[in-house]
Amino acid sequence: MNLKVAGIKFSYNHTPILDGVSFSLRPGKILGVLGVNGAGKSTLLKCLNRILRPSAGAVLLDEDDIQKMRRSEIARHFGYVPQKYGEESLTVFDAVLLGRKPYIKWAASRRDLLVVEDVLKRLQLERLAQRPVNHLSGGEHQKVIIGRALAQEPEVLLLDEPTSNLDLKNQLRVMNIITNAVHDFSISAIVSLHDINLALRFVDHFLMLKGGVVHFLSPKDMVTSAAIEEVYGVKVIIGHVDGHKVIIPVDGGLERSGR
Predict the structure, then answer these.
(1) Residue 156's domain spans which residues?
(2) Looking at the structure, do residues 169 and 251 belong to the same domain, yes or no?
(3) pLDDT (tens digit, 9 = 90+) per residue, 97-128?
(4) Which of 51, 166, 172, 254 has the maximum number of C-beta atoms within 10 A of its C-beta?
(5) What is the CA angle 30-34-39, rounded to 5?
């Protein structure tokens, strides 16, 4: 399904956070949402699946307005991976099975169990299926949360800083999981990230927020050092390493203490 976001506005206690955010995304593509802390990245994701209700604007899936959908219907279309989650005593299998909740009426069906088994296999979590989630490493735990979202069989994945608190190897693993899921299931993903270089490696389009508005929206190959400086307030140069575009902060871009 094609996603269209038109003029989303949202405020906390009369303080504007998002002011007319618009974009579109088609299946098979990943949109990276970037910006400084407090730019509204997490708020935007929560508005997209109606955890938060925008004061204006619309979120459309093939012209169907999610504001008119039941909560369970939204959960079938959007898989959400939050930035923070509590410790869980559930097993890995049961935690991923929770993603089937929008489909389960009385008890899990054979199809529900098969979906969970397939997700565990794709994420290489089979050997951990009966282990309590709160006994896992950070990287394994994050894979379980993503697995739960994938078990919903969504058209759109919403991931709020999915690589935060992960080491470099697990950051790459998690982003590869997201990329593979998008391509294998022909879905789309919207990922909020702090690491611009990680975004350049994995996402297809950049959406940079500043002051509650879309300051920059384009394919990642069109991102400029000027746009990054305008959003982050840091001078950078754009280089290439082993075929990958990289962002390098310029010495002097920030004031040094003592000057």
Answers:
(1) 3-90+147-223
(2) no
(3) 999 998 888 888 999 999 999 999 988 899 99
(4) 166
(5) 135
